[in-house]
Amino acid sequence: MMQRSASPRPPRAAGWLGLLLAASLVGGLVAGCASSASANGMRSSRSGGTASAAGRPAGQPSGTASPAAGTAQPERPASAARPASPVSTPAAQPLAGKVIVLDPGHNGGNGSHPAIIDRLVNVITEWKPCDTAGAQTDAGYPEHAFSFNVAVRLARLLRADGAKVILTRRNDHGVGPCVTQRARIGNRAHADAAISIHADGGPPTGRGFEVIAPGLVPGHNGAIIGPSHRLALDIRNAYHRLTREPYSDYVGTRGLDVRTDLGGLNLSTVPKVFIECANMRDAADAARLTSPRFRQRVAVALAAGFVAFLVPDSHP
Ligand code: ZN
Fold first, then answer.
1. By CB count within 10 A, which of 53, 124, 144, 159 is most buried?
2. How far is ligand 1, taken at its centre, from the CA of residue 91, in Å?
């Protein structure tokens, strides 16, 4: 989940542009997704801790997530069928030369370090906590574990397709990094695409997923609005098709949303989206999120979304 702003409306200067972008993104069905940010009613208390964040220095994270953190899974059939030739062909490694940053939301140590993660950071449109503890299912399966496990699985698939993959955290027991640092990691890597992976802590009666694209923050992220919205569509389409997860029925429009209150998007200089893979508070969604098989399906779907975005000719 991503904490939504207490004052969800974007800055006035960005408002109408944001509405236009939102309208174009969702096919003109509903404008103003960016200003509907209060829909899911999630709030985290905000306190002004002063300790410095324990985020990793920029550029330090490698793509080597701890193997122990992920459960070994079989590769996709396409990878298994790859020819034994040492020379990779474009068809075998469609993402060769591409850099992808995966940002698994939250971290396992966040909940026990409020002084660090509650520290306010500037995300341009407002000041927000450095990070949050995230959501969990009613049975206690935490969002940070879900997001990290999906990221490890996804990294494995993307690397098999030839991509260079960088994770914003190495394991699931640290603290942070701050949302500002998470964006900076993608920027410094000059990523071709980036995604923040989350699962929502929405209303118990709500279900489904949504992909969030950045709204325009004038003077900051204009260059990535267009490509980020294309990335959002490709991720939304692949995710819906391959996981059969329904569009969120309580936020966004047809699985899409636009927001200007997320530091990870406001501060990005590379194409980037967020995804709330499902609602942890819904019983049916929770059953899926806690299934390793479903998490692998999520990873396969997100990988397909990246391929669709980065290799347009590969569209099914
Ligand atoms: Zn989250």
1. 144
2. 34
